[in-house]
Amino acid sequence: MKEQDLKRDLLVERQKVKIPKKAIFHAIDEGIQQAKPDISKRFSIQIVAAVVLVGIIGTGISGVADGLFAKEEHPMEVVRFYDGMSISPEKNDRAKAFVMEKGIGYWANGEKSVEADPKEEDILIEPGIYDVSLSEGEIGEAMGRGVLLPGETYSGYFFGEGNYGEVVWGDASLQFTPAVFEPLEKIGEQYVLKNKFGEFEVGAAIEPGIYQVDVEDASAFSMGWSVSVFTEHTMKNGDTFSDGATFSQKEFGGRVIELRVGALLRIARKYQSEDKSETASLSGNYEGVPPQVKITMKLIEEE
Fold this sequence. Notes:
Elements: H1 3-14, H2 21-32, E1 53-54, E2 78-79, E3 98-100, E4 106-108, E5 123-125, E6 128-136, E7 140-141, E8 147-148, E9 153-159, E10 164-165, E11 173-178, E12 186-187, E13 190-194, E14 197-201, E15 209-215, E16 225-235, E17 240-248, E18 255-259, E19 264-271, H3 279-283, E20 294-302
Parallel strand pairs: 4-5, 9-14
Antiparallel strand pairs: 1-10, 2-16, 3-11, 4-10, 6-9, 6-11, 7-8, 12-13, 13-20, 14-19, 15-18, 15-20, 16-17, 16-19
Helix pairs in contact: 1-2
């Protein structure tokens, strides 16, 4: 049965009886999965930090969605990620451009989020939402958000009041500029994202809904390289749930994810040595070829 026929039949059936979304998406996954049988079709994403960053916003991940973030499983209302914050896309006038050099600590102005004594050489910068790119170097980590090459940008990096950051991996310097909040380009019923990385607000940068996500030629990536595509939903009670997938030489094929209004869609190119040690990245010795990333997100059901 073709994917679109399966989806249509399931949606017609939903008009007669209540079928949990998770069951529908499991069926779709069964029809489109191309990975090896022992590969998990959907799993929670673990964020690998590439930089010391203290005082992350919110209460942290207090729950992780097992599979698709479904209303039947998580009936609490989803709220906007930026709700109640002093910094948001509408309130980002404090952000000022700066260059982050390796070996120097950077503190965002405001009450410190941890007990720490800044070093004399540390630099005070303004909090805000920033677009991050390389100012020096051929390859570098974007503050724990994945690997960037010259000419690429990680969009929408949140540097909150009292937060601390420094370049830890690689030898690149990072250029921070106040974020330009542009919507992702939609062609027909899908988004085609080429080397597009960052944090994108659902409902502003991308339409809400249920998407089939594919990463072109992920099975041909060099060992250690991957692309993560996941969402972070904030509940009204403060809990946070994540859902998404990693695409790599070992894990590939179509996945289905749900994007709700106010959530963040995070996309990053990542590297981890085969033995999962940090040695290679800490020294900037990345093995293999950094993949060119082409992501297709096809809207299969509107919210």
